[in-house]
Specification:
By secondary structure, the chain is an alpha/beta fold. It folds into 2 domains: 255 residues, Metallo-beta-lactamase, Chain A (4-Layer Sandwich); 70 residues, Arc Repressor Mutant, subunit A (Orthogonal Bundle). It is built from 11 helices and 15 strands. The strands form 3 sheets. It has a 7-stranded mixed beta sheet with strand order 1-2-3-4-5-6-7. Strands 8-9-10-11-12-13 form a 6-stranded mixed beta sheet. A two-stranded antiparallel ribbon has the order 14-15. Helix 5 packs antiparallel against helix 6. The longest helix has 25 residues. It starts with 28 loop residues before the first strand and ends with a strand. This is Zn-dependent hydrolase.
Length: 366
Amino acid sequence: MPPLPAASLSAPPLHYPLDKQLPELGSAIEVAPGVMWLRMALPFSLDHINLWLLRDRMPHPEQAGVLREGWTIVDCGIDNPATREAWLKVESQVLQNLPVLRVLVTHMHPDHMGLAHWLCERWNAPLWISTGEFQSAMLACSGLSNFGGDPTVQFFAAHGWTRPEDMAQVRSRVTYYPGMVPKIPGAFVRLMAGDTVRIGERDWRCISGYGHSPEHMALYTDQGQILISGDMLLPSISTNVSVYAMEPDSNPLQLFLDSIGRFEDLAPETLVLPSHGRPFKGVATRLAQLRQHHQDRLDELLAACIERPHSAHDALPVLFRRPLDVHQTTFAMGESVAHLNMLWLDGQLVRHRDDDGIYRFRVSQS
């Protein structure tokens, strides 16, 4: 594996056109003509998600040749009373007495998918999403997810996280996903890489992404140079990239790094609308920062594995310099395995299973 491209020391800093403005709960800020920014609360340390309203028009389902004016929603928030109340406030104060025409979801994670069923039913609006994300959401909603239960406990134990009290909590997380996404719409319109979706006056190109979720779709338009990046490109935190029990030998970090390369050809003045953090400009700078971040973590892991073999659990203090609770550790473990797997599958590390059944990674002698 060649070194990842380093961040340029001369790269300009990110620019935040709206400075520190944030939309209040249930209200919106117009970030471009016909593009509204909403912000909903989340009950995690990452305490918010950005959602987007796009002015739209679509053929009337019952009147040939008639276009209906309305809105496309991009991402939904989790399903809980507070988020439903916030959407009702948006309905009364932001939608201008126009209907929701469709609900578009970038990917299946709870903060993006949770209320899709409620919004689709409330407005009799179709769900637009990629097949990989729709099917993964259906599995997770039924309890067959990567977020908890016995398979996840066994996966974590194989990578060195065996503390009984922690494993009891992980086992109980089998309800984590359906607790925030209790239902999935029964039908959907498929989004595919390279598709063009006409929304209002703009054509949006679907840009697929992998590593963070099964088949993430970002949206880019040349008309105004706007990228709705979902979780693939965030301004101040690195996107979670994890290995899960269902695909234990996967290489999601390589998939993620390959995927963000698809944003390299975007215009320098592109306004990035991320799912977390503030809208920003500086795609090239942020791509370089993310690549450097992961290269640094890979280098640190290699150095640690020269000293002694490491399990993914052993590697947590190498990758994360702050205390982690059990919820945070579940994501950190996935990240740790992702970085180790990338080095292992590239031949820089050798993996073996010790007498305790734990995978250890050491530097290859070849």
